[in-house]
Amino acid sequence: MAHVKLHIPGPVEVSEKTFRAFCSPMIGHRGQGFKDLYSKIQPQLQQLLYTNQLVYLSTSSAWGVMEGAIRNLVSKKVLNCMCGAFSDKWFDVSKRCGKQAEALQVDWGSPIRVEHVDAKLATGQFDALTLIHNETSTGTMSPLAEIAALKKKYPDVMFIVDSVSSMTALPIKFDELGIDVLLAGTQKAFAMPPGFAVFVCSPAALAKAATAKDRGYYFDFVEFQKNAEQNMTPSTPSISHTYALGSKLDEFSAEGLEARYARHRKTNQMTRDWTAKHGFTLFPEKGFESITLTCVNNGAKPGGRTVDVAKLQKLVKDQGFLIDGGYGKIKGSTFRISNMGDETEVTMNPLFTALDKAMAQL
Length: 362
Ligand SMILES: Cc1ncc(COP(=O)(O)O)c(C=O)c1O
Known about the structure:
The chain has helices spanning 16-22, 32-48, 62-73, 85-96, 114-121, 144-148, 174-177, 203-210, 221-228, 239-255, 257-277, 309-317, 345-361; strands at residues 5-6, 55-58, 78-82, 101-105, 128-132, 134-135, 140-141, 158-162, 181-185, 197-201, 293-297, 321-322, 334-338.
């Protein structure tokens, strides 16, 4: 069957080169080969996340680490900042972990605002908060730096940040932000196959985790640190993903991080320009639009154009491209186009041509 190129917001298209690295011959995870591999990529990961802390490799999707962060770091009560499907679900996951949790819910499409977080933390009830930097379901980016600045005011609160669909597409300076956990899965802007995540913890998070009696084993952050110090992982990792990550990080270095960020801004602008050309408006509040995907209004808000999203998807798919038809409660009233990963001006243009053709047939 002919391959349909992915422009959904994850998983995204994986290059032949990355697949070749993924298929490298197997090695033992306690042997020198794996240690050499991990020790080679460790400084590249640290550079990517602007941190001196060790970056961990988790053989799980992002949710594993997201749940793990709750188990390791919440002893009193967690504030779940909620502005879309994934951040809303984190509240549910916190409760499923048996934790006291409170929702800071805003309308989908709105960002999380620093003053709301400040007001909640000022109650003194919380020892952790969860924040999704780039809410993929709504294509909305919350002001991470502003919110992270609250850490100085509330040093005992663990700031747990999901950058699943933003990591590598723009700078997220872990040490400078002063947050406690930063995590991402690899099937989004890393442009790797799904099933793997990377994350980093502050020394304060590791100290707090060490006091959590019921933190389990598979996602025990203290185990990740102990093993990373030896260039290993607590359990048998996906060595294939680790090879792919190594290949990807070499590509990032060759391109240069600033050029990588500029490329994402450019391809995102191209997508926004395409939506404007066809009379669509964007779902997120102005000024908070994601730079890795575009969530387009389809009658979800007044003033915009409305089309048959399922038909649009089909017409585009028939030309070899998959776009997303909206997620959760805004399925159909929005659609999403991803520009994250390896996409360039040259690789995005055929998608816009296909979309133009599809629009002419609607
Ligand atoms: C922002 C965000 N967080 C978390 C997740 C969950 O990732 P996974 O299903 O890979 O665990 C997703 C998935 O799309 C996401 O976009």
